[in-house]
Design goal:
single chain; alpha+beta; 6-stranded antiparallel sheet; 2 helices; 30% helix; 26% strand
Length: 145
């Protein structure tokens, strides 16, 4: 019983802290500070699991692996934004709670990224700035709800 209560409290507190950090990081990035967004990446050829990385907010989109032993070492440089969507039931096993999946295409094939909803708009804007102006006219996702 005590274990169940501790697990429940840890889950609730962890979700609260993760949401607070995502909001705080997005607000600092909008204020012009150099902050790192956690962004996971997956190439379909690599399997279902996503590799954790970071993106420096405000500049061009450049994904940096989080650890030296991360399976995915680099992303293609010619990413083009396709759409942002909620994660599927199967992806819930591999992704953090309440993240958006950003689908992109590149010369090597499709690429999937995940980002927190508060940071997804800024990540998509960075991808668009890095790609050519005629590559995608899709709207930026509305994640205000």
């Amino acid at each position: 019983m005590i274990t169940g209560v501790c697990v429940f409290l840890g889950t609730v507190i962890g979700a609260f802290l993760m949401e607070w950090r995502a909001r705080r990081t997005a607000a600092r990035a909008e204020a012009g500070e150099a902050v790192l967004f956690p962004v996971g990446a997956n190439l379909p050829d690599e399997g279902r699991r996503y590799s954790l990385g970071r993106v420096l907010a405000g500049g061009e989109f450049r994904w940096i692996p989080r650890w030296p032993w991360t399976r995915l070492r680099a992303l293609p440089t010619d990413l083009r934004y396709i759409r942002a969507r909620e994660m599927t039931f199967r992806e819930m096993l591999w992704l953090p709670d309440r993240v958006l999946v950003i689908e992109c295409e590149s010369s090597v094939g499709p690429v999937r990224l995940w980002a927190h909803p508060k940071q997804a708009v800024q990540v998509v804007e960075m991808i668009r700035r890095a790609s050519s102006p005629n590559s995608s006219n899709a709207p930026v996702p509305d994640v205000s709800s």
